[in-house]
Design a protein that fits this description.
3 helices, 4-stranded antiparallel beta sheet, OB fold (Dihydrolipoamide Acetyltransferase, E2P)
């Protein structure tokens, strides 16, 4: 008989609950501030004046005096039309004026000769009346002849076709030897005045309504006397160095596009801006008083929308839903959900849970806030 002794050792399991230390987080106090606002739209450059150069008489082009795509100054001669026919017409008109003046001089002498004879009753008064009539006709003929001379001079001047503006002259549509007239065959080239340069841009009706509401409510303060500064950003991302002004504001909405047209005027002395470029227009001068802005990384996105963490008086993390406005790298405008004095968690939120204990310390920003808002709204009227 064997005796089996089973020794059972009951091990007692002891759960040791460790207290989780508070999570260190960087925080900032929510404080309203005044920030500049820059409204941004896509625009297109356009010459401030675009003039069609046309012939005003019929004739053959004798000379062309400009290089296509080069600058010409106001009054420079671009084309010459063969002037010989018009020189002859001027000579004929001047000759007719001499004849008319001679007839008038003869009528004047006749009146001077006949007047005393009538007073002496040596001749019939009818002869003097006839002389006075010839004098009036002569004066009319002289006036008509002078007008013909002026007309001939004017038509002769049209043989030299000048540019009415200083700017870039486009491609020529007629070469030397081509026949032109003053009707459908009159267009020769185009002159573009590019200093200043216009920038046209459209603003959606919805943005205009939002802008108007912001101004009326005091959320946005606009510059006085329409004193907007306009900057142009080129296609390569560089900013054109000379600021401009707002030249025209939208006064009606196009029902086909739902937008209103605006225009800026930009100095362009060196011709860096050319007609037809697509640019980004930025309007500076508005400010947002009492704005609440927070670092971008403090705003999280959840199923219900954006939210942030704030620190409660018990030093716990609390979720706070927010309504964001414009994004100004590296910050967000917060329209609703935060109030002055709230302690916002910026750093250390990756593993936070609602209600978790936190150990706050001041948040130190590593970048400076931007000074422009990527907003789309029109300037004031």
């Amino acid at each position: 008989m064997s005796l089996v002794v089973v020794l059972g050792c009951k091990k007692e399991q002891v759960a040791v609950q460790r207290e989780v230390p508070p999570a260190p987080v960087g925080v900032m106090t929510v404080t309203p501030t005044t920030r500049p606002i820059v409204y941004s739209e896509i625009g297109q450059t356009a010459a401030s004046r675009k003039v069609e150069i046309r012939a005003r008489i019929k004739g053959y082009i004798a000379k062309r005096h400009f290089e296509e795509g080069k600058r010409a100054e106001e009054g420079d001669v671009l084309y010459e039309i063969d002037p010989r026919e018009f020189q002859v017409a001027l000579q004929q008109a001047e000759a007719q004026l001499l004849r008319s003046q001679a007839n008038l001089d003869l009528a004047d002498r006749d009146i001077g000769r006949l007047t005393p004879l009538v007073e002496q009753q040596s001749i019939s008064p009818k002869e003097l009346d006839d002389a006075l009539t010839r004098q009036k006709v002569g004066r009319g003929d002289v006036a008509a002849s002078q007008a013909d001379v002026e007309q001939a001079n004017l038509r002769l001047s049209y043989t030299k076709i000048t540019t009415p503006v200083s700017g870039i002259i486009g491609l020529t549509l007629k070469q030397e030897g081509s026949f032109v007239d003053d009707l459908n065959n009159s267009l020769l080239t185009t002159a573009l005045q590019t200093d200043p340069m216009y920038v046209n841009f459209a603003v959606p009706e919805r943005s205009m309504l939002r802008y108007t509401d912001d101004v009326r409510s005091g959320r946005v303060v606009i510059p006085s006397d329409n004193g907007w500064r306009v900057l142009v950003e080129l296609a390569d991302g560089s900013t054109y160095e000379i600021p401009g002004t707002l030249d025209m504001v939208g006064f009606e909405v196009n029902p086909a596009t739902g937008t209103a047209q605006f225009r800026a005027s930009i100095p362009n002395p060196d011709g860096k801006l050319i007609d037809g470029q697509f640019v980004k227009v930025r309007l500076l001068g508005a400010t947002r008083p009492g704005a609440i802005v927070v670092p971008q990384k403090a705003v999280q996105m959840g199923e219900q929308g954006p939210f942030v963490y704030v620190v409660t008086p018990e030093n716990t993390a609390e979720i706070r839903p927010v309504k964001t406005g414009n994004w100004i790298p590296p910050e967000w405008f917060v329209e609703d959900g935060l109030k002055p004095g709230d302690t916002l968690i910026v750093d250390g939120i990756q593993k936070l849970q609602p209600g978790a204990k936190v150990a706050p310390h001041p948040y130190i920003a590593t970048t400076q806030p931007a000074t422009r808002a990527a907003a789309t709204a029109p300037p004031p009227r």
